[in-house]
């Protein structure tokens, strides 16, 4: 399974087998060490092997023929839900034709009702069970495959959640005497707690994650995956539903970048890697495996830890000059959206006015259309959704913070700080409820390869956006804010269709920015048309004058042929058929994000 990928051409292989078992929650507990450039600690995964899976797997079991070990390994692969960009190259490299890759034209179209849930999707991917003969007593153990790359896995163990004091209340069926069944039953109850008990659920996940281990599990790693099994656990429902992995990252791992900030101090951050977070933590990458997470991250006390969590974490001082930071999310998201940045950044505060004053001033500009929208009914899995929360719906400006190296303090105060409230407010006046409850903006190191990147609750901005007048900073900020809706709350299921969210965000940056500047309608239209002409010229120039591999806008050039590019289009067309500027209806289908939802920008326009 050592696949050589050409990052410019191939998509990532999706190794995780999500048909029978899905990660519902990750608990990360990590130490960041700048001397060794290693992040080390544990991750506890909580699984659900839902009822639908159990029924399905029993009737369609498939076992390995006595072939070579390698063949056996390949059979354990899931048919990919996400297509591989260059299928032919990819499969011939692997030299194994049983590896089922969904071609672009054969993907499921379950998105057409705009209301698909994880289980349905997952069971549509594959209904057959892939087993591997372990060679141990002729048994066929269920093999859990996680996406993982460049991690040193030190130990994998089952977690004895039954040992957590007070956990008994999570077992509806006290008759269970087999202790492994009891443990799995506890996790099943825990992962299916109703959304209004999210705090209790988070707390239980945290306590369970610290429960003692109750047996090491067998594991193996290769270039793209971590494979785990428990002797005698032949089906996903039998497999431990809470496992702890001890691991450390490698300095050369490509999920995070170790570098220096503009003040020359060390920092590390996820900068939208082509391999997503696989070199940061083992995960289920296919977007059907949407999950929540919580993380405790420790670093020397001089560092600030920022994450894509929904809480604005404050440090807890530990002994010996270390601090710990705790973040969490309650909205299930693909593992690729988890974002972290650790550095000696300073929170930027306004110098002469409070941002609230400006916000209040701006708030008067127009009665918001959003006020008339009713609080919607959502079709996604249950979680504490802001679209169903009346007070969230009227919040024009969400709490926000700005972090940057101290040497950029003046520049941030001059431009960025005063732009955030009007841009957030403008976004709310056009689209209504902010999908995320807060926003951190981080000015990232100079080697950041693009102008901005949006993740849940956090936006990375290049310092280039701070130069000149407020125009570049304002439009870029509007663009990244728009990605909270398009690209994060909803998105193409297939990340080769990223241009869809780019298209919406690029369009909306003009709409938001015109509102934020309080332009008259005629001025706004003039500005928008001018920018559209510039973009069109630039695209034409690029297509005419640059070789294909150099075309940074090439994804946008596909907008003219919406034809046969499959399911993602099916999801997105629901948005496309809306009347102009009525974005409210898409909210019913939010949170169906596909794949790499941390959106990277490279267009300077
Ligand atoms: Zn919702």
From TrEMBL:
Source organism, top-level taxon: Eukaryota
One annotated GO molecular function: metalloaminopeptidase activity
Gene3D superfamilies reported in the protein's UniProt record: Neutral Protease Domain 2 (1.10.390.10), tricorn interacting facor f3 domain (2.60.40.1730)
Signal peptide (residue range): none
Protein keywords: Aminopeptidase, Hydrolase, Protease
One Pfam match: Peptidase_M1_N
Cellular compartments per GO CC: nucleolus
Keyword Hydrolase: yes
Domain Aminopeptidase N-like N-terminal: 257-335
Domain Peptidase M1 membrane alanine aminopeptidase: 434-531
Tagged with keyword Manganese: no
Coiled-coil regions listed in the entry: none
InterPro entries: Aminopeptidase_N-like_N, Aminopeptidase_N-like_N_sf, AOPep, Peptidase_M1_dom, Peptidase_M4/M1_CTD_sf
Protein name as it appears in the record: Aminopeptidase O
Natural source organism: Pteropus alecto
Lineage of the species this protein comes from: Eukaryota, Metazoa, Chordata, Craniata, Vertebrata
